[in-house]
């Protein structure tokens, strides 16, 4: 158990400090996924811009070093960073929350986030692994605290927050309608349900946070009952972003529309969770 955790932490720690996967910091061209929904992240770390006549909504801030590249992408699309009014987050990990503090300052936007991820956001720490400084990110104040089912609206766009805890205690999956051509589709930004560096069970240190091992199965059940025409995720590789963007083109069906993708991703993630739980339980004996 201990070896496994140290190994997992060491891997992520190294990743954060020295060997960040190159795709995480590699810039990529922003593009429209659908009507008023844009990808403005780096190659490997997502950030989504939803534009409205009353200002814009930006979801996720990637790494601390990603704030300026995200802002550059917003500008490239012809939008103003100062028009971003609302910042949202899928989950409070350094690779998705790291840029939020700077983006918030530069845009003058307010941040809405789940109650359960608030401490992580406001301390810039990974709860349960506070000693791993490689997980740290610039703290950012939460202006509006959200609970499951809460809605965030701006300029006629309404997003719904669905708490899918496990990956973090306040992991938030977002749903919102978006037009593809003349058809309104349901978009779902999945928070992630991977185990990653999380302790599900541990004899020596206890779980990453109380109740984590029970949260994952509940989140899988919840996600299985949800529908998504457009499946989005915090990492491009989790939703086949690279292949889909090259498959886009005039007269072609939008490749981001795939009502079967959510179920496939959740099933694969649940299988992986069960294997990791068994491994951690065995190691904790
Ligand atoms: Zn994460």
Structure description:
- The chain has 9 helices and 12 strands.
- It has helices at residues 2-17, 22-25, 67-76, 94-97, 100-107, 115-123, 212-224, 241-246, 261-284, and strands at residues 31-34, 37-39, 48-52, 55-59, 84-88, 110-114, 144-146, 151-154, 157-163, 172-180, 183-189, 230-232.
- The strands form 2 sheets. A 7-stranded mixed β-sheet has the order 1-2-3-4-5-6-7. A 5-stranded mixed β-sheet has the order 8-9-10-11-12, with no helix packed on it.
- The relative contact order is 0.14.
- The N and C termini lie close together (9 Å).
- The protein has one domain (2-284): Metallo-beta-lactamase, Chain A, CATH 3.60.15.10.
- The model is unreliable at 1-18 (pLDDT under 50).
- It is globular, with a radius of gyration of 18 Å.
- It has 285 residues and is an alpha/beta fold.
- The structure holds zinc ion.
């Amino acid at each position: 158990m201990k070896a496994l955790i140290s190994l997992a932490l060491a891997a992520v720690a190294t990743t954060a400090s020295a060997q960040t996967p190159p795709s995480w910091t590699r810039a990529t061209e922003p593009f429209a996924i659908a009507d008023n929904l844009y990808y403005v992240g780096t190659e490997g770390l997502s950030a989504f811009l939803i534009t409205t006549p009353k200002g814009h909504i930006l979801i996720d801030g990637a790494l601390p070093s990603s704030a300026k590249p995200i802002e550059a992408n917003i500008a490239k699309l012809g939008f103003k960073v100062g028009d971003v009014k609302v910042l949202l987050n899928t989950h409070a990990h350094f690779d998705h929350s790291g840029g939020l503090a700077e983006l918030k300052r530069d845009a003058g936007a307010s941040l809405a986030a789940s109650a359960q991820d608030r401490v992580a956001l406001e301390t810039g720490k990974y709860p349960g692994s506070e000693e791993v400084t490689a997980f740290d990110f610039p703290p950012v104040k939460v202006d509006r605290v959200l609970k499951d089912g809460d809605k965030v609206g701006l300029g006629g766009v309404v997003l719904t927050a669905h708490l899918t805890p496990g990956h973090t205690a306040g992991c938030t999956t977002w749903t919102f309608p978006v037009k593809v051509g003349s058809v309104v589709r349901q978009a779902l930004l999945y928070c992630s349900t991977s185990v990653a560096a999380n302790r599900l069970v541990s004899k020596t240190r206890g779980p990453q946070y109380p109740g984590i091992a029970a949260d994952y199965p509940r989140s899988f059940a919840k996600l299985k009952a949800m529908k998504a025409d457009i499946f989005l995720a915090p990492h491009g590789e989790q939703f086949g972003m690279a292949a889909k963007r090259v498959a886009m083109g005039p007269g072609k069906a939008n490749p981001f529309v795939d009502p079967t993708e959510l179920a496939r991703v959740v099933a694969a993630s649940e299988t992986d969770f069960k294997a990791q739980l068994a491994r951690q339980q065995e190691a904790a004996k």
